[in-house]
C-alpha cells in the first residue's frame, strides 16, 4: 500500500496520491456507466432507424421495447465475460494496465456504434463495450482497496460508486442536448452523434497510465502467489463466493430490469400525455426529452444519496444488515411506484425512492466484495462474483422487454413484478459473510481469519 506521510494527510486520512488513484478509478467507473447506458437513451430513435421503421409508430415503439430488452441482456452477458476475464488479467498484469485497456475498449466500442448500419453491427459493437465495462470495475475496485488506508475502504468504496449516478446523469444530459435540442429535427442522425461522445474516456485512459502506479500491495502479493478462478471455490472462500454471487444476482436483476426501461417507459408516458395535450411533433419531442431528464435525474439523485448512506449503515450495523435494509426498501419503492396509478408528473418523481434503494445498494459492492478476498485473489474474486451474476440477471431485461412490447400498461405491470425480486435478497443473506471488523491487508487467507 502506498504510504502517506502524516504531515501530508488530508481528508479521510488520505494523501494527494491516494485521492488521485480514487479519482482515476472514479472517472473510469463513471464513464463505464456513461458508455454502457447511452443506448437506452437513444433506443427510441436508433432501433427504428436501423430496422427501417418510421419513428413514432406503434411498430417502432414495440420494436424499441423488444430490442432494448435484448440488447441490455446481451450487454450484461458480455459484461459478465469481461468482468471474469479482466478480473483475472488484473491479478496477473496489474490494476493500472487493466484499467487503461478496458477504458480504451469500451470507449472505442461506443464510438463505433455511431457507424452501425444494421442491428448485427450494433450488437457486435455493444458486445465490445460490455467486455471493457465488466473488466474496468474489477480493476478499479481492487486498485482503490489496495491504495487507500484499510480503515477508509468503506468510505472510498462508496465514494467510488458515486460516479455511477454522475455517469448516468451525464448520459441523460447529453441525450437531452443532442436529441432534444441540437439535432431535434434529425432524430435519425442525433443518436449517431451522441455515440461519438464515447471517445471521451479514451483521453482519460492515457492520463491514468501516465500518473497512476501499480499498488505496492499487489506487487508484493503476486510475488508470492498467482490467482486462478478455481481458488475462489476452495474451502477458505467457497461460502463467501456463493453468498456474494447471490447478493449480486438479486441486486443486478432489480437494477437492470428497472433502469434499462426508464427512458422507454417515460417516453411512452410522455407520448400518451402529448396526445392528451394535442401537441405537435416538435412539442412531443420536447415533452419526451424533458420527462426523460426528470425521471433520470430523480433516479440519479436518489442513487447518489443512497450510495453515500451505505457508509454509516455498513459501519454501524454491518454489511448484512445494510443489504437487508436496502433490499426491503427496493421492494417497497418498486411496488409503490408501479402498483399505484400516479399522475404522470408524480410517476416521474417516484424514481427518486427507486434510485435511493435499487441504485444506492450498489455503493456497497465496491467495498464489500474486495473485503472478501486477500490481495492476490481480490480482482479475480470480486470480478467473478459481481459479474457472473449478470449472466443470470440478463434474463430480467429480456423478460421485461418482451412484456413491455405490449405497451405502457404492460410495461407498468412488468416493472411492478420486478418489485418482488429484491425480497429474494433476504434469502441470499443467509449465505452472506459479514466482513465488518475483519482485517484484509494480508496476502494469505489463513492469516486473515477467513
Considering the chains and any ligands shown, give keywords for the structure.
75% helix; 450 residues; Growth Hormone, Chain: A; globular; 0% strand; single chain; disordered N terminus; mainly alpha; 20 helices
Shape: globular
Low-confidence stretches: 1-7, 440-450
Q: What is the number of domains? A: 1
Helical amount among residues, as a percent range? Answer: over 70%
Q: Care to count the β-strands? A: 0
> Whole-number radius of gyration?
21 Å
Question: Can you describe this structure?
Answer:
The chain is mostly helical. It has a single domain (13-217, 225-447), classed as Growth Hormone, Chain: A, CATH 1.20.1250. Helices cover 75% and strands 0% of the residues. It has helices at residues 16-51, 58-93, 95-112, 119-147, 153-161, 163-182, 187-196, 200-211, 216-222, 238-259, 262-277, 281-317, 319-339, 344-349, 351-359, 365-371, 378-393, 395-404, 408-418, 424-428. It is globular and about 65 Å long. The two termini are 21 Å apart. 57% of the residues are buried.
Amino acid at each position: 500500500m502506498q504510504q502517506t506521510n502524516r504531515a501530508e494527510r488530508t481528508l479521510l486520512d488520505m494523501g494527494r496520491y491516494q485521492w488521485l488513484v480514487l479519482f482515476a478509478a472514479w472517472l473510469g467507473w463513471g464513464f463505464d456507466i456513461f458508455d454502457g447506458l447511452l443506448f437506452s437513451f437513444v433506443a427510441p430513435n436508433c432501433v427504428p432507424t436501423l430496422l427501417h421503421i418510421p419513428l413514432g409508430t406503434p411498430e417502432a415503439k414495440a420494436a424499441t421495447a423488444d430490442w432494448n430488452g435484448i440488447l441490455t441482456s446481451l450487454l450484461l452477458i458480455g459484461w459478465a465475460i469481461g468482468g471474469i476475464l479482466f478480473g483475472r488479467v488484473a491479478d496477473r498484469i496489474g490494476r493500472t494496465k487493466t484499467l487503461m485497456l478496458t477504458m480504451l475498449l469500451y470507449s472505442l466500442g461506443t464510438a463505433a456504434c455511431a457507424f452501425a448500419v444494421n442491428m448485427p453491427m450494433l450488437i457486435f459493437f455493444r458486445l465490445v463495450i460490455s467486455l471493457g465495462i465488466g473488466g474496468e470495475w474489477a480493476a478499479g475496485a481492487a486498485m482503490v482497496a489496495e491504495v487507500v488506508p484499510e480503515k477508509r475502504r468503506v468510505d472510498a468504496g462508496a465514494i467510488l460508486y458515486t460516479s455511477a449516478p454522475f455517469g448516468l446523469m451525464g448520459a441523460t444530459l447529453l441525450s437531452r442536448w443532442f436529441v432534444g435540442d441540437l439535432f431535434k429535427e434529425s432524430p435519425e442522425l442525433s443518436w449517431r452523434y451522441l455515440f461519438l461522445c464515447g471517445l471521451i474516456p479514451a483521453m482519460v485512459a492515457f492520463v491514468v497510465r501516465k500518473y497512476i502506479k501499480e499498488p505496492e500491495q499487489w506487487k508484493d502479493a503476486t510475488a508470492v502467489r498467482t490467482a486462478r478462478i478455481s481458488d475462489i471455490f476452495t474451502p477458505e472462500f467457497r461460502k463467501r463466493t456463493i453468498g456474494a454471487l447471490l447478493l449480486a444476482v438479486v441486486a443486478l436483476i432489480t437494477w437492470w430490469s428497472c433502469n434499462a426501461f426508464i427512458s422507454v417507459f417515460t417516453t411512452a408516458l410522455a407520448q400518451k400525455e402529448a396526445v392528451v395535450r394535442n401537441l405537435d411533433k416538435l412539442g412531443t419531442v420536447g415533452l419526451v426529452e424533458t420527462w426523460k431528464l426528470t425521471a433520470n435525474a430523480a433516479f440519479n439523485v436518489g442513487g447518489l444519496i443512497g450510495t453515500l448512506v451505505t457508509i454509516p449503515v455498513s459501519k454501524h450495523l454491518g454489511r448484512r444488515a445494510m443489504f437487508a435494509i436496502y433490499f426491503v426498501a427496493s421492494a417497497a419503492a418498486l411496488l409503490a411506484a408501479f402498483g399505484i396509478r400516479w399522475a404522470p408528473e408524480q410517476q416521474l418523481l417516484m424514481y427518486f425512492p427507486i434510485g435511493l434503494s435499487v441504485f444506492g445498494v450498489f455503493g456497497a459492492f465496491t467495498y464489500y466484495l474486495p473485503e472478501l478476498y486477500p490481495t492476490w485473489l481480490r480482482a479475480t474474486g470480486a470480478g467473478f462474483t459481481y459479474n457472473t451474476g449478470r449472466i443470470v440477471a440478463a434474463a430480467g431485461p429480456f423478460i421485461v422487454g418482451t412484456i413491455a412490447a405490449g405497451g405502457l400498461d404492460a410495461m407498468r405491470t412488468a416493472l411492478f413484478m420486478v418489485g418482488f425480486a429484491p425480497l429474494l435478497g433476504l434469502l441470499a443473506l443467509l449465505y452472506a459473510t459479514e466482513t465488518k471488523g475483519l482485517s484484509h491487508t494480508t496476502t494469505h487467507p489463513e492469516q486473515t481469519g477467513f
